[in-house]
Design brief:
The complex is a heterotrimer of chains A (274), B (250) and C (337). Chain A contains 13 helices and 2 strands, in the order H-E-E-H-H-H-H-H-H-H-H-H-H-H-H. Chain A is mainly α and 274 residues long. Chain A is globular and about 75 Å long. The chains are: A mainly alpha (274), B mainly alpha (250), C alpha/beta (337).
Chain lengths: 274, 250, 337
């Protein structure tokens, strides 16, 4: 009986998630046709091409930006999660407030930053009116803008798991620490943080993975000046029409994400969330 | 209380860009200097035929994909609740965190490969298929969350009284799940309506969605019409999500 | 309704075949047609046109390459016609159905890329040059090296297009635009990487607003976009670089996969009518390949440069596959630098 319930989902995921991934894996081992398309000789050439310093540099750059975004999300998101965990009756309200922007369109949110950061955007206009600057600050089309966009979009992904871990924290532990003479700062460092570690780890992975494969944010906010893995994949599948190479990159990206995800699933918090 | 001040600042950071976008959609001038209140850009947005068509397509796709994914996802969540299904659960999780560009190109590869034999083309239906594929995970999460606190003995009692498994499900469990199902449906609707990356790759000749139209407009420069459309999207989707949250509380 | 209009309309109605098809799918560059002309064709022939747009040849090719896209008519740039034809993507043109081909400008009747006009009907053409802010960039730029000027750091952009950027670097070094020599290309890449530090971004049509508002002072730009910017603001100037510049002609072509061969030809013939081509050129603010239409349009030195300047332009041809792959890789290197 149970099997019938699971069947539609299994079929759909097999056909439209697993099969596409397998096709991509296969394409990674084929060759590019003259003007695009896929052709016969099976070769590992696309994968060995990835070892080229150019692409390793792009991989490294993507990892770097994803790491910085994750760090910023953690630093900015943890105090927020802490606050919500202590908010008592209003917890759910605050959680909803945190998640609400996430549910409105990703494209719209990224566009909002375009609107704010341009030379004639809000920040520069306000600063100019206040006579704080004479020439507009170049806030757009650089790494800073990309990081802002990424952090803004994925902050909720960190806050939720961190909150889940903090919420489970037994207040009695904090009282005990206070009774033993610890000041709030020390309590935070030596009691709260270690106990919330699984949540922080889960949140970090949930931010890192999408940032690694980000495409729209660097595209719109980066001014085409930098290439991340997501842009590279999109480029290979459209402009360069090199599907085997694009597939190889996608596969590597998926492998990285899969490994990170598997690691995260082992944490206690992930099991709770599942 | 520094923590509270910080939290407020963080929440403002999260909401300010959207509020600013909405505020300036009422600006009569197209520059970032406030010149006066005007609904001019909204009027222009309503008159644009491409926007209208994009909206129609988005609504159709979202409705179809929400229906399908809610049905499939509810059944799957229930099946997994009774006894775990690690492979399915793992693949659902993976689909949630896979970068959209990878999901998109893999589906494109699948369709193009299949079309060699099937003589079909990309269209509305390929977008619906893609959307259902990534929405199922969201539905499963919502329904599973509701089932977690659900008492298994209710169903067992029904079966003790002679009901079959299926009837126990439809007559006992399902009614209790209705609010969660509605919530999941709304969530699937929002997620589908909002998608750009995957849709842009698998859309066909006559399946341009609203996000695709907005992206094309944004590529041609910042325009207050985009602000107006974005404002409407934020308000409508935001309302749907709040409704979904309320339903989940029941 | 005056007699002339009536005659035109009835001729138009007669031109449409009895064979009524419901829809024609046209895939064109964005802002490249007058919507009123689409409506007019729909009314005359009782068909519906589905009109889609794209921002680059690659975007169009990505959709069309599989031979299964659903589009009937596309507008590739001239250098893409031969490769597309070679890959069996295009249905050849039937001149018997294109009565108005004579309206084309003499230069485009037997173009270098398609002497027999077998594959595509020349539609609009433009060139790449430098658009600049006249008030703030003095003296006015004369060549590509103006975009390497350190004084304009952070206020310049280049196109997000490998052919244009690498080509500009090659021309700046007085090397051929279409060079496939690896040393030439390596030198061009070095120029591009050196320039990148001074650039604000790689942008296509989006930079027009920023030029008009004064954020950007100099930009590598297509003459079409520049003409649009100049119409919006008298402060903008446009120059055709002294070292040379590329010319592009977008041609209307019918896809082999299309099942509406006759209707597609009717549409192409419709586009060749002088008043239709003139209306399109006015709406798109670009240079038309239609000589009869050009006579109806005002003189515009930006869109139609004088002969001695035109002589410096080159029509890039299709590159051999290996050279194209090499350039693709160079472009990734430049972008990742």
């Amino acid at each position: 009986m149970r099997r019938w319930f699971l069947l539609p989902a299994r079929v759909w995921m097999a056909l439209f998630f697993a099969a596409p991934m397998l096709i991509v894996a296969a394409y990674g081992f084929l060759t590019r046709g003259d003007y695009g398309g896929i052709e016969q000789p099976w070769t590992g050439e696309s994968f060995t091409r990835l070892a080229d310093p150019l692409y390793l540099a792009i991989l490294w750059r993507s990892v770097w930006i994803a790491l910085v975004s994750t760090l910023l999300c953690a630093v900015l998101g943890f105090p927020l999660a802490l606050f919500i965990a202590r908010a008592g009756r209003y917890r759910n309200l605050f959680l909803q407030l945190v998640m609400l922007p996430f549910w409105t369109s990703f494209l719209v949110r990224t566009y909002a930053w375009l609107f704010i950061l341009r030379d004639t955007g809000l920040v520069n206009t306000v600063l100019a009116k206040l006579h704080l600057i004479r020439a507009p600050l170049p806030l757009l089309y650089n790494d800073g803008a990309v990081l802002t966009g990424l952090v803004y979009n994925y902050l909720p992904f960190f806050v939720l798991p961190a909150y889940a871990a903090l919420e489970r924290l037994d207040p009695a532990l904090l009282e005990a620490a206070a009774d033993l003479g610890a000041r709030p700062g020390a309590t935070l460092r030596r009691v709260v943080l270690p106990l919330a570690a699984p949540g922080i780890a889960a949140g970090s992975v949930l931010v890192f993975i999408p940032c690694l494969g980000a495409y729209l944010t660097p595209d719109l906010l980066g001014g085409g000046k930098s290439v991340m893995l997501g842009n590279l994949v999109q480029n290979q599948f459209t402009t360069a029409r090199d599907w085997p190479f694009g597939s190889a990159i996608s596969l590597v990206l998926m492998l990285l994400c899969g490994v990170l995800l598997a690691g995260m699933m082992r944490t206690r918090v992930a099991k709770e969330l599942a | 209380m520094k923590l509270r001040a910080y939290a407020v600042a963080a929440l403002i950071f999260l909401h300010a860009p959207l509020l600013i976008l909405i505020a300036f959609s009422f600006n009569s001038s197209r520059f970032t200097v406030w010149e006066g209140f005007s609904l001019h850009w909204y009027a222009q947005a309503f008159r644009d035929p491409q926007l209208a068509e994009g909206l129609a397509n988005s609504l159709i796709i979202a409705a179809l994909s929400a229906l399908l994914s809610t049905a499939i996802g509810t059944l799957a969540a229930y099946g997994m609740w009774r006894r775990g299904a690690p492979v399915l659960s793992g693949s659902l999780y993976l689909s949630l965190v896979t970068p959209e560009i990878v999901t998109g190109v893999s589906l494109l590869a699948l369709f193009q490969w299949a079309f060699r034999f099937l003589h079909l083309q990309l269209g509305l239906y390929t977008v619906v298929i893609a959307h259902v594929a990534f929405s199922i995970a969201y539905v499963v999460i919502v329904i599973s969350a509701r089932l977690r606190g659900y008492d298994r003995t209710l169903e067992e009692a029904a079966m003790d009284l002679g009901a079959s498994e299926w009837r126990a499900f439809t007559r006992v469990t399902l009614p209790i799940l209705y609010p969660a199902i509605a919530a999941a449906g709304l969530l699937a609707l929002v997620v589908s309506f909002d998608d750009y990356v995957i849709t842009s790759l698998v859309a066909g000749v006559d399946s341009e969605t609203l996000p695709m139209v907005i992206y094309a407009m944004a590529r041609r420069g910042v325009s207050p019409v985009v602000n107006a459309v974005s404002a409407m999207i934020v308000v409508v989707l935001g309302a749907l999500i709040l409704a979904s949250e309320k339903l989940q509380k029941q | 309704m005056n007699r002339r209009a009536f005659l035109t309309a009835s001729l138009g109605a007669a031109a449409c075949s009895r064979d009524r098809r419901p829809r024609l799918n046209v895939f064109n560059w964005s802002t490249y047609i007058d919507p009123a002309m689409l409506a007019r064709f729909e009314a005359e022939c009782g068909v519906r046109i589905r009109y889609g747009t794209y921002e680059s040849n690659e975007e169009m090719l990505a959709k069309v390459m599989t031979g299964n896209s659903g589009w009937d008519i596309v507008f590739p740039t001239h250098s893409r016609l031969a490769p597309m034809a070679r890959n069996g993507l295009l249905a050849g043109l039937d001149h018997a159905r294109l009565k108005s081909l004579g309206n084309l400008d003499a230069e485009f009747q037997k173009p270098a890329w398609d002497a027999g006009l077998r594959w595509g009907v020349p539609y609009m053409w433009n060139a790449t040059g430098i658009a600049y802010n006249r008030a703030q960039v003095t003296p006015p730029p004369t060549g590509w090296d103006a975009l390497w000027n350190p004084a304009l750091r952070g206020r310049m952009t280049m196109l997000d297009d490998p052919e244009d950027v690498i080509g500009a670097c090659l021309e700046k070094l007085r090397l051929p635009f279409g060079s496939v020599d690896e040393r030439d290309l390596a030198a061009a890449k070095a120029e591009a990487v050196a320039q990148k530090k001074l650039l604000r971004a790689y942008l296509n049509a989006e930079v027009r607003d920023q030029l008009v508002s004064g954020d950007v002072l100099a930009a590598q730009m297509w003459s079409t976009t520049a003409a649009q910017a100049i119409h919006q603001s008298g402060q903008i100037g446009f120059v055709y670089p002294a070292e040379g510049f590329p010319l592009y002609c977008d041609c209307a072509a019918i896809l082999r996969e299309s099942s509406r061969y006759e209707l597609a030809h009717e549409f192409l013939d419709f586009l060749l009518r002088p008043e239709v081509a003139a209306a399109n050129a006015r709406a798109a603010e670009t240079a038309t390949a239609n000589g009869a239409a050009r006579a109806m349009l005002p003189e515009d030195p930006v869109l139609y440069p004088p002969a001695e300047i035109r002589a410096r332009g080159v029509w890039p041809g299709a590159l051999p596959a290996a050279a194209q792959r090499y350039r693709d890789r160079l472009w990734t290197e430049i972008k990742a630098a």
